[in-house]
Amino acid sequence: MPPSGAPPDETAEDLYESAPVGYLTLDSGGLITRVNGTLAGWLNLDKPALLGQKVQKILTPGARIFYETHCGPILRLEGALRQIALDLRRADGTRLPALMEWRRVDGLDGAPLGYRVMVVDATERRAYERELLDERERARKTAEELARLNADLETRVEARTADLVQLRKIESLGQLTGGVAHDMNNLLTPIVTCLDILSRSTNLSPRQERLLGGATEAAERARILVSRMLTFARRQHLEARPVDLTELVLGMHDLITRSIGPLIELHVQADPDLPLARVDPNQLELAILNLSVNARDAMNGQGHLTLRLGTTLIADGQPAPLPAGRYMSLVMRDTGAGMDAATLARATEPFFTTKAPGHGTGLGLSMVHGLAEQSGGALFIESVPQAGTTVTILLPLASEAVRATPAPPAPSYKEPVQRLRILLVDDDELVRSSVAAMLDELGHDVRDVATPLLALNEVNAAYPDLLISDFAMPGMTGLALIQAARQQRPSLPVLLVTGFANLPDLDATTLPRLSKPFSRAELASAIAQAAHVPNASLAT
Amino acid sequence: MDVIKRNNVKVLGEGTQPIVFAHGFGCDWTAWRSVAPNFERDHKVILFDHVGAGGSDLTAYRSDKYSSYAGYVADVLEIIDELDMNDIVFVGHSAAAMIGMLASIQKPERFDSLVMVSPSPSFLDEGDYKGGFSRDDIDGLLEVLDSNFLGWSRSTAPLIMGNPERPELGDVLTGSFCRTDPDIAREFARVVFLADHRADVPNCTKRALVLQTQADLIAPVEVGHYMHDHLPNSELVLMKATGHCPHISAPEETSAAIRSFLAG
User: Fold this and answer.
1) A378-384 and A303-314 beta bridge pairing
2) Tag placement on chain A: N or C end, fewer CB within 10 Å?
3) Is A491 helix (H, G, I), strand (E, B) or coil?
4) Binary contact (B141, A73; C-beta < 8 A)
5) Are residues A66 and B26, on separate chains, in Cβ contact within 8 Å?
């Protein structure tokens, strides 16, 4: 008996038979010549059933292929195989995942005598490997998905960056255009005013009248041009109200037909019972005319122009520059030359034109673009070279359920209702003197000053009936001047004159105002209104 | 695309008639190391690796291209074009016997004859046809492959990838036995063991030698007879050698059989 606690006293034979691993001995032809009890037990086979069999016979078919294609050649060439995973087949056909070590035994002459093979039960390990492999596959898929998402994101960022660059370009062009338009207005005001005064002279020769007429017409065209620049710069003062687009477009039918010429067929299609849009109808008419003229030029005077009215739903998450919701859509499609991608990308830039010099200002589409955006809508242009262009204007629906009532006619000017003492303040000498002359012509008593401070002194000293102030002045805006003046005289009637018709500060006020440049009649009408609404408030 | 680099092509020998040796699944060009030299005196000997094996350019591997034998066949035809070879003897083992057969059907004018070592047009049993395996068997193979290749990148890599304890063996013949990229081997296994090209066999009109061993557990003797019966112009040699790889286990008998076929 071995002492208690000593390792079992086993013979080499015991060790071979009962070792916790399987052993096999093969002859040089791969036939099993010896097998230990452990392995026979694992396979649930009697030893005699195993002896004399080819070793491949105890492998599963799949493992047999791997052995023949991968292990056999290496074993023959190298004489050893380490930790090879193979599946053994038990007597009942079930699978025993195993790890096997193979060693060739060579005789003294170097010729192979046979092979020693050790087998380890790898059931647990194999299960763990499967989990690892599954995990690796999952990780690979996740990485692929991430890479795909990343690539997608990069594409979107690129596209967005390009959009932003274009947006910034348009924005800075807008600022530039707005600034130029403001200065142009200041220059146009004395021109228009002086021409207006001159045209009232009674002793003009026919030639003088003709020259004056030409100058007046040129000034009017300049005024329209500046107004479009302001629209693009989104600084136009918009009189947005509920508009029935069908009525508006049908009302323009003759005008459009005339502008596109006899060889272009105009088709107007409108869904029945369309809701009202919220937009400045005059500006929209101008936009439709601009687009009609563009279509005419693109079609070389011949083709089809389709104008379609309907509604469009912008869904949540849809890539659009608009909040989700329903919009009125006005679609104009021509069958003209179309635009290539490069032209299309720049189409709404101000002063960009493909027309011959003198045939376009490059402000048409930019005006439409500015109008759509300032109205809370959007402009989309699609074009296929040689196939035509489709321009879509989306406009917000009017929240008012009621149909639009026709705008009240502007109060008409009657010869001086009343001679007023008017205090005029404008830092621009040219503008100030011409407006003063016009006021004088209208029969008012004018006191004109160059700075807001001088104006404040006058408000106290001269007690004017009306204060007419420019908006943009150094040191103090017209708005600030009016606030200060009304500290002294809370009910002082005022009229704000501005080159930028639409300024954020002013949006919140209901002050009477007049956009530069203006005619004598417009000035008179504005005075009449301002003098009757002395209590217009500075804030809504 | 450098075809020579992609397929690790080697041109040896002093003869003029080209003899191309193509390895099968699980090995690389070194499988022919005891056979190819026997033909160097009389032939121009061409050895190469399929993409994914041995010294091939692994970056050239694309799953879609190599999802069937077609990609491997295209590579063989490109090698033939690149080396401007005609009158070719194509010796292919197992999977490569099929690749050579399909290539010779596509461009018969380039080939003289085919030697098919342990070929099989389909490994799956179907009806009367005994390919030797069921679909479950092939799934079992894929699992064994996974398990071994998982280890290949770790402890067993030195054995498979080379033999650091015996650097004197050098790299020419013994430094890199049967290297295969694990992921590619897995896909190649599907191509080889799930393909069925029985319908193509009768279209191969070239003179062909089918070498069939005793007790081939991968391509059983019935399959050897099937090939011989369906190839219009073939000879069947039943070898004394056993196992699926007679070119490795019995290179002399294999060489002699090829030699005798070429002389006939």
Assistant:
1) unpaired
2) N
3) coil
4) no
5) yes
Q: What confidence score (pLDDT) does residue B160 get?
A: 37
User: Taking the CB of residue B240, how many other CB atoms lie within 10 A of it?
Assistant: 9
- The mean pLDDT value of chain B amounts to 87
Q: Report the pLDDT averaged over residues B237-241.
A: 94
Indicate yes or no: CB of B25 within 8 angstroms of CB of A69.
yes
Q: CA torsion A188→A194→A199→A200, rounded to 10°?
A: 130
ipTM for the complex shown? 0.81
Convert A48-84 into a string of H (helix), E (strand) and C (coil).
HHHCCCEHHHHECHHHHHHHHHHHHHHHHHHCEEEEE
> Do B218 and A64 make contact, defined as CB atoms within 8 angstroms?
yes
For residue B177, give the chain A residue with the closest CA.
A74
Q: Hey, is the C-beta of A443 within 8 angstroms of any chain B C-beta?
A: no
Check if the beta carbon of residue B31 is closer than 8 Å to that of residue B247.
Answer: yes
Domains of chain B, start order: 3-263 (3.40.50.1820)
Residue-wise pLDDT tens digits, B29-75: 988 999 999 999 999 999 999 998 888 998 899 999 999 999 999 99
Query: Which residue among B144, B151, B217 places its CB closest to the CB of A56?
Result: B217
Which residue of B141, B147, B168 to mutate against A (max A Cβ within 10 Å)? B147
Q: Any CB–CB contact under 8 A between A473 and chain B?
A: no
Please name the residues between 40 and 79 in chain A that touch chain B, using a CB distance below 8 Å.
54, 56, 60-66, 68-70, 72-74, 76-78
Nearest CB to B245; choose among A73, A78, A80: A73
Does B163 score more than 50 pLDDT?
A: no
Q: Is residue A537 within 8 Å of residue A259, measured between CB atoms?
A: no
- pLDDT at residue B152 above 60? no
DSSP A146-183: HHHHHHHHHHHHHHHHHHHHHHHHHHHHHHHHHHHHHH
Burial class (CB in 10 A: 0-12, 13-18, 19+), A530: buried
Give chain B's length: 264
Residue positions of B annotated with a catalytic role: 94, 216, 244
Distance from CA of A148 to the nearest CA of B (A): 18
pTM: 0.54
Tell which residue, A430, A431, A424, A433, has the closest CA to residue A451. Answer: A424
Chain A interface test: which of B133, B143, B161, B174 (most A C-beta within 10 Å) = B143
- Per-residue pLDDT of A101-145, as tens digits, reads 999 999 999 888 999 999 999 999 888 888 888 888 899 899 999
Looking at the partner chain, which of B141, B178, B243 has a beta carbon nearest the beta carbon of A65?
B141
Q: How far apart are CA B220 and CA B123, in angstroms?
A: 10
Burial of B91 (0-12, 13-18, 19+ CB in 10 A): buried
Q: Round the average pLDDT of chain A to a whole number and report it.
A: 84
Task: Please list every residue in chain B whose beta carbon sits closer than 8 Å to the beta carbon of residue A82.
Answer: 155-156, 159
- Cα B122 to Cα A322, B22, B163, B222, distances in angstroms: 61, 19, 35, 12
Write the residue in B139, B145, B243 that is nearest to A66 by C-beta: B145
Which residues touch A176 (CB under 8 Å, ≥6 apart)?
Answer: none
The low-confidence residues of chain A, meaning pLDDT below 50, are 400-414, 416, 533-540
